[in-house]
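Lab channel / #folding
Pinned by the channel admin:
"Please post every new chain as: sequence first, then the structure tokens as a reply. Keep commentary short and put observations after the output so the thread stays searchable."

First post following the new format, from NK:
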Amino acid sequence: MQELQLKYGCNPNQKPARVFMKSGGELPLTVLNGTPGYINLLDALNGWQLVRELKMAVKLPAAASFKHVSPAGAAVGLPLSELERKTNHVAETEVLSPLASAYARARGADRMSSFGDFIALSDVCDLSTARIIRPEVSDGIIAPGYEPEALELLKEKKRGNYAILRIDENYKPEKTETKDVFGITFEQGRNDSAITKVLLENVVTRNQTIPDRAAIDLLIALITLKYTQSNSVAYAKDGAAIGIGAGQQSRIHCTRLAGDKADKWYLRQSPQVLELPFREDIKRADRDNAIDLYTGPEYMDVLSDGSWENVFTRKPEVFTEAEKKEWLSGNTGVSLASDAFFPFSDNIERAFRSGVRYVAQPGGSVRDDDVIDACNAHDIAMCFTGLRLFHH
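Reply from TO:
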């Protein structure tokens, strides 16, 4: 297949639309089912690059959940604990492959943002992973291959219209890439810088210790940022990016947004949330929406009389700010990465409140000393990678 005609571009009024190889060669992907759209393909190709690099860096199967050209979640295939199974809607009896665990973690990072995602998998999609994907609301998937049973199961999604793409895992793009904006062509070298543990060696704080598990989380955060619309900041823990702040003009807003998402990820593990008395007929997405409201400042939208009856069998108690603060104090050992330097120490102060103890950032600000001092005050270990990861 040398080109793929699309229904339209980013919006219905943008026609005609297609993807093709400028070289005239074959496209490195095959549509096995459904009809992917313009944005679907942007998500698919960015997601594929992310999971491919994650697997190379961490040596574990990887998965990503993409929405609007930025990841909502990314993770590697570490086993799920009993608690993680509950928060990620995985049955205790479900046997998970490492790849299935990776997607469950990626989807569970920010379930609100992952609604209607495009999935990227580093490995051949097995039946275990397809079973985890099947009940989730998703637009499509890209992977280097599919087990026959997995493919047939996925084809049933969206009434048979689920977009299923196979990518040639041996495909290597040209070193130079171009992009047209307003009739003007931009050209640059591809961002093919390798993200490895070598980037974590320049530790600039008094605390020089970055354990292996934290190093993995920092690599996950950095690689996630490489394919996240800038400015961007990512929090990571236990093999997953748990909070991603994308596309903000101010870095502190990125840090706050990502930190708030990381807090929500941890609040979903609290007894107050796990014991919510949901009605049996509530759909998964409606449950996720209710949890998001319940753990946030607009909790009365789901607890007010006339509203809670639609979701719960009885009215839950308010999850007070004091209770949330106490629970969040137990979230420690979080890793944080930034796609560019932190210009002010307020980023560290905000990150510390979400349990951050390890930081990776390029460095190079005139206020680097202030940022280092803030890390030292909280016994945070921070490394300067020297590598900026802007993505537009």
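NK: The CA atoms of residues 19 and 223 lie 26 Å apart.
TO: also worth noting, The first helix runs from residue 38 to 58.
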